[in-house]
Amino acid sequence: MKLRPITQREPGIYGPGSVALPAYVTGILLVGLPLIVVIVFSFLQRGEFGSGVIHKFTLDAYRTVFFETDLMGNQSLNFSFLKIIFRSIMLAFTVTVICLIVGIPTAIWIALQKKSTQRILIALVTIPFWVNVLARTYAWMLLLADGGLFNQIGAPVLLYTSWATFIGLTYAFLPFMVLPIYASAEKLDKSILEAAFDLGASGWRVLIRIVIPMIRFGIFAGIAIVFIPALGAYVQPSLLGGNKSMLIGSLINDQFGESRNWPVGSALAVLLLLMTALILLATRRRKLEFAS
User: Fold this and answer.
1) Which CATH number is associated with domain 88-251?
2) What does the alpha-carbon distance between residue 12 and residue 54 come to, in Å, rounded to a whole number?
3) Which pLDDT value is given to residue 124?
């Protein structure tokens, strides 16, 4: 009797594709189908009396986002929506930059510690994930409110201002910047750093010429992970900022809620999705360029 090698795989239902099938089904049901519904709604007409949608193809929702019509029927750019989109992009960009400035040295410092110390520090970084985001945001409301801790030490009342939104977003997304950069910095070859210092390189030159290029993939991942959710954030702008400086996440919520204009809300969500896709494509392209 001829024995087959043990590495030979028997055909059947337990291949790589079938193992991943539950993940594919879950992704399609919980992510794919809702996105398709939102995209379809963005091309439908608003329902009568502001309720739901009418199954009639139209581009009115996108026209409403970009243009407004006066009483004479003249169209002009809808600067109110465009300002909100631009404000959201700038805030997300600023939060990402601050998280980069703080996250890069923090992640590198953690990666240079002993393994036992690294585990403790990473646990401290991930502690915010153990608490619900709403609870953390309400805690910041108590800190920034009139009579709160910051106000008692002489700081102005920041609650319901753009500064409160900025602080809340930076606090919420900073761990998302530290963790991927740390994952790359942990693989640094310390002998290369020691050799650079022995050859007379300064700390800044070692950081810019050696460390940053070696952890660039973690930096790109951190930028994408922070910028994308900060762009569409809703909880922090609503609770900390009081929606005084409305962002695109709050605008989408208002369109589905108070305004009951589902097509416009869907169109804004599609635009947010497109911006997210462009960011991911740009990040992926930069990764491929550096890899090549």
Assistant:
1) 1.10.3720.10
2) 47
3) 93
